[in-house]
Write a structure and sequence with these properties.
The complex is a heterotrimer of chains A (190), B (103) and C (604).
Chain A: H1 2-18, H2 24-44, H3 48-72, H4 88-108, H5 121-133, H6 137-158, H7 166-171
Chain B: H1 3-25, H2 29-53, H3 60-90
Helix pairs in contact in B: 1-2, 2-3
Chain C: H1 3-21, H2 25-48, E1 53-60, E2 63-69, H3 71-94, H4 101-120, H5 124-142, H6 151-180, H7 185-188, H8 193-210, H9 218-222, H10 228-236, H11 239-250, H12 256-279, H13 283-303, H14 307-335, H15 340-343, H16 346-349, H17 351-365, H18 371-385, H19 389-415, H20 427-454, H21 463-482, H22 485-489, H23 493-497, H24 505-575, H25 580-603
Antiparallel strand pairs in C: 1-2
The chains are: A mainly alpha (190), B mainly alpha (103), C mainly alpha (604).
């Protein structure tokens, strides 16, 4: 119970920190810590497989996020202390209201008797594996296909228009000032 | 009614609330995505708590967590794809400047 | 081929031929009319031999069209043909300088054909048709010089006068056919009683119109606007004669009361128009008035119950009056007009013509042994023998006296004065026609006995009548020659010169009421027109209202709906800022609202 409360508090704290710093890197790291705290919370709730999975996945994800942060933000260190928020009051209100509502639901709903005995980690994993390849196989496979689709779609969206002409482009002297739109010049070449 | 379940649920609610705040208040696309991640994380905590304290015998609860993780991954992938395209076109991912979809 | 068809079709086909060929109108016309004459003479010869030619043509159901050549109709047909021939010969000379010979001769031939049809018609329907054709062709001929002032109005007047009187014929024919059940003239002549009285009076109205009897005598004098051959033809054997012929043919049917009315009408006409003729200042108008007067005499004879006397006078008058007109035409060409002031001494220009003219005039006056003497004598004898001897004889004698007077006056004016020699184009043709007719006028009297035998009737000779008639004619001639017209007429002069228009004459009694009726009809028409227009406008108004309600109502509803939707859309558009955080805020708020609603629903 203590661990659950501790890690939950840590997760929430780091979640708040995500939006409190001016540094993108620190935000990403705070999110990473928050998710890791969640993973630890899963572990303390005897969901070992999920906890480990959470920690590993989120570590990867957040590292990627941090890298992108550095790439997109000209000021990854947050030295400029620029305000990157808007409609603060509405956001705050919405956050508090959703929090209060969820808590109210959690408190006022009668959840029934609480199970005390939980299958051990190996059994859980076996059950989960059987579940995934048995009853919920369609959902699982759909999720996999969806991820694949999302990856292809993300690549298609992110790819530079006319990127395949960069090879020929590299052999010639670049005549434009902006390398980002050099691909658009393909039609002007002799 | 166990105190652990309540704690977990409150944690989920708090994460969700923080996520809502972040998603609404941030101007940077990546930061908005972080808010969304937090909201999903809140949902995930709830699912794990429900599985653990209400139906530990049913592995479907864990399966839902996996689905949420999938969704997070997808969100990341698509979000970063869009962010890259946006950055390449405009040089920034500030969402205040992105009003092309205005009706 | 039957002679009847030849008699009718020869002029008609020639008319068509003239219009088709468009050349040699005079030659063709002479040819056609001569063939017609031969056919008519053939018919007459057949009649003398006791053969009756008849053609029955398919007409209305149960009312076949008939053409019959009885002795009477054959005689009339011959008369028409002869006069037409001689007038045609004259017309060749008369129209020599006219530019529209084609139209003239074609119409004249049509006229002749129509008249032949009329006299030969054996049933009422064909007679009606021919009657109408005569009216039409006379209208065309009187209005032949339609470019001259007053001609059109004269033609229209003649047409309308005769037409309105024709209504009498129409009604009479309907009555006769309805009562007899047949359109055959011979059959209907057997009707008697009230029907005969009514029909006879209606026929009299028609005859009055066509024969220009008082009070419908006005149009005839105005019809002098036409070419002189036309006048000659109209007055002698065709249009005007049609009225008298109608009465002569129906005389056997007419009851005594109707006969008396006919006699009175004829008597009044002969006196009134005789006075008018005496007061005339124009030769042709004088002759026209004289025509009315002579037809009045014929009606007196019919009224006296001796249609044969009327027929003989008709025949004699046909020859006489055409020769008079033809002579007048010569004088007209000689002096370029027919007013007496222009014509003074014209007789001396053309002594031969004047001789013929004088012979005809004396014949008309009734001087033996000229034809007029015998016919007039017959009329006076008939009136003496009739039940109303006193009145009819007075009328007849007065008519004879007046005839002598105005003819003597005309001769006097033509002879007195100075000669002015003019060359007249076509005098040979005119002279030939005139000579032929004058010869007829002179010698026809000799043919009367054979005509009497032909018609199986005889006239009772009466010495008293001869003495009375001759003395009246002679005194009339003496008066007319020696005493100026002004003194002769005395206070009647202005009346006579105004055509005895009693209190405005026909103009007041017929024309004004007719105009008033016409005007009220027009007003009614205008009212109806306005009503119809009003209905139309009402329809338009309803249409406009419907359109308005459509446009403003239904269309407006639809448009306001569309506008509302568009407005709503543009308002919703404002929500679509395109900014992610706004959209997300809206999403959150919306979700919260939905959840709140669900919660409330759950709690309630």
């Amino acid at each position: 119970m203590f661990f659950i409360g501790f890690f939950g508090l840590a997760a929430v704290w780091f979640g708040i920190v995500v939006f409190r710093t001016f540094s993108m890197v620190r935000s990403a790291l705070a999110l990473l810590f928050s998710q890791t705290a969640l993973g630890a919370m899963f572990l303390s709730m005897q969901a070992e497989f999920l906890g480990v999975l959470q920690i590993m996945m989120m570590a990867t994800e957040m590292s990627i996020m941090a890298i992108f942060m550095v790439m997109f933000m000209m000021d990854p260190g947050g030295l400029g202390e620029m305000d990157m928020t808007h409609q603060k009051r509405l956001s705050l209100g919405a956050g508090i209201v959703s929090f209060v509502a969820a808590v109210a639901v959690a408190v006022f709903v009668d959840w029934g008797p609480v199970a005390t005995v939980v299958p051990d980690a190996a059994q859980q994993t076996i059950d989960l594996g059987l579940e995934l390849l048995g009853r919920s196989m369609l959902i699982f496979e759909t999720a996999g296909i969806t991820i694949l689709t999302a990856m292809i779609a993300a690549t298609a969206v992110a790819i530079q228009p006319g990127a395949n002409s960069t090879t020929s482009h590299r052999r010639r002297p670049v005549s434009t000032n902006n390398p980002l739109d050099s691909g658009m010049r393909r039609n002007d070449e002799r | 009614m166990s105190i652990e379940l309540l704690l977990a649920l409150i944690t989920g609610a708090a994460l969700f609330g923080v996520g809502v705040y972040g998603a609404l208040s941030q101007t940077n696309l990546v930061m908005i995505m972080m808010g969304v991640e937090l909201m999903l994380a809140g949902a995930m905590v709830n699912l794990v708590a429900f599985w653990r304290y209400l139906h530990p015998d049913n592995p479907a609860g864990q399966m839902f967590v996996l689905i949420i993780m999938t969704v997070m991954a997808i969100e990341m992938a698509v979000g970063f794809g869009v962010a890259i395209a946006r950055f390449r076109a405009k040089g920034s991912v500030e969402m205040e400047e992105a009003a092309e979809l205005k009706g | 081929m039957n002679l009847i068809t030849v008699a009718i079709l020869a002029p008609l086909s020639t008319a068509v031929l003239i219009l088709l060929l468009r050349r040699l109108p005079a030659t063709l016309a002479l040819l056609g009319i001569a063939i017609g004459l031969l056919a008519s003479i053939g018919l007459l010869a057949n009649a003398f031999n006791g053969i009756t030619n008849e053609i029955i043509l398919p007409g209305l159901p149960d009312l076949p069209l008939r053409l019959v050549a009885t002795p009477l109709t054959a005689l009339l047909s011959t008369l028409v043909a002869v006069v037409c021939n001689l007038v045609m010969i004259y017309a060749v000379g008369y129209m020599k300088l006219d530019g529209e010979k084609l139209r003239f001769f074609a119409t004249l031939l049509l006229f002749a054909a129509a008249m032949q049809t009329l006299v030969l018609a054996g049933d009422w329907i064909l007679l009606l048709a021919a009657w109408e054709l005569i009216g039409l062709s006379s209208y065309l001929l009187i209005g032949f010089w339609y470019r001259r002032p007053g001609v059109t109005s004269a033609a229209t007047r003649a047409f309308l006068y005769t037409r309105s009187a024709d209504l009498g014929l129409y009604i009479a024919v309907f009555i006769l056919i309805a009562s007899a059940g047949s359109s055959d003239i011979a059959t209907t002549l057997n009707t008697g009683g009230g029907t005969a009285v009514v029909a006879g009076l209606l026929l009299l109205v028609a005859a009055m119109g066509k024969s220009a009897q008082t009070p419908l005598h006005d149009w005839l004098q105005r019809a002098m606007a036409g070419p002189t051959p036309v006048s000659a033809l109209l007055h002698s054997a065709t249009l005007v004669a049609a009225g008298a012929i109608l009465l002569i043919r129906t005389a056997p049917m007419l009851p005594p009361d109707t006969l008396l009315v006919i006699g009175i009408v004829g008597g009044i006409t002969t006196v009134v128009t005789g006075l008018i003729a005496l007061g005339e200042r124009d030769l042709k108008r004088l002759l026209a008035a004289s025509t009315s007067s002579q037809y009045g005499l014929m009606l007196v004879a019919v009224g006296a119950g001796v249609p044969l006397a009327a027929l003989l006078h008709l025949i004699a008058h046909a020859a006489i009056k055409s020769s008079l007109f033809l002579g007048a035409g010569v004088f007209q060409h000689s002096r370029d007009g027919t007013a007496f002031t222009q014509l003074e001494g014209a007789g001396r220009d053309q002594p031969h013509c004047f001789f013929g003219f004088a012979l005809a005039a004396l014949a008309l006056a009734g001087i033996p042994p000229l034809s007029g003497f015998f016919s007039k004598d017959a009329i006076i004898a008939a009136s003496l023998a009739s039940p109303n001897a006193l009145m009819l004889t007075t009328f007849a004698l007065a008519g004879t006296l007046l005839t002598g007077a105005y003819m003597a006056r005309a001769l006097h004016i033509l002879w007195r004065g100075n000669s002015q020699k003019h060359d007249i184009v076509g005098l040979g043709w005119m002279g030939a026609g005139l000579a032929g007719l004058v010869t007829l006028a002179v010698i026809l009297g000799a043919a009367f006995p054979s005509l009497e035998t032909l018609l199986n009737e005889s006239l009772s000779g009466n010495t008293l009548a001869q003495v009375l008639g001759l003395s009246a004619a002679l005194s009339g001639l003496t008066l007319g020659w020696f005493i100026p017209m002004q003194r002769l007429l005395g206070p009647l002069l202005p009346w006579a010169q105004r055509g005895f228009a009693i209190a405005g004459g026909v103009d007041t009694w017929v024309v004004r009421p007719a105009f008033a009726i016409a005007r009220s009809c027009e007003q009614l028409e205008r009212g109806l027109y306005a009503a119809v227009l009003g209905v139309g406008r009402l329809g338009l108004g309803i249409g406009r209202a419907v359109r308005y309600s459509d446009e403003r109502g239904i269309d407006g509803l639809i448009f306001s709906l569309v506008r509302g939707t568009v407005e709503l859309g543009s308002r919703a558009r404002a929500l679509q800022s395109g900014l992610i955080h706004r959209e997300m805020a809206i999403t959150v708020v919306g979700t919260a609202l939905i959840l709140a609603t669900l919660l409330v629903a759950l709690l309630i």
